[in-house]
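Example for tutorial group B:
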């Protein structure tokens, strides 16, 4: 078979990465529940193709650095750029945000990017 003229199909996907930084220490069980609550709300939009979440692994001395240090990271993969906007209007998201911020204040940063497989 001649592969000299083989065309490669590149499939683009988009990832929404959230970095969440709680103001005060949060127990692992509470953090896991927070991550689960966010996962459920986002998956209920119907556009999530893949999800992953990770706890931050602290390094000694990092608290002395004046930087945004996340407590956790969440990744949501979607098929189209338009799907990203769905997250900002996700039904139930406001309720989850207010519930958690009332007991565990936090800040969020995010980045959206395209990947090719």
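The residue assignment follows.
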């Amino acid at each position: 078979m001649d592969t000299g003229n083989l065309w490669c199909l590149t499939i683009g996907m988009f990832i929404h990465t959230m970095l969440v930084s709680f103001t005060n220490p949060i127990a692992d069980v509470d953090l896991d529940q927070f991550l689960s609550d966010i996962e459920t709300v986002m998956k209920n939009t119907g556009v999530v193709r893949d999800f992953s979440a990770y706890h931050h692994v602290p390094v000694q001395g990092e608290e002395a650095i004046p930087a945004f240090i996340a407590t956790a990271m969440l990744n949501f993969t979607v098929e189209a750029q338009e799907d990203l906007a769905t997250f900002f209007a996700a039904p139930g998201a406001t309720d989850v945000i207010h519930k958690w911020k009332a007991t565990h204040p936090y800040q969020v940063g995010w980045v959206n990017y395209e990947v090719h497989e």
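The beta strands are 12-22, 50-55, 72-78, 106-116. Compare this with the pattern of hydrophobic and polar residues in the output above.
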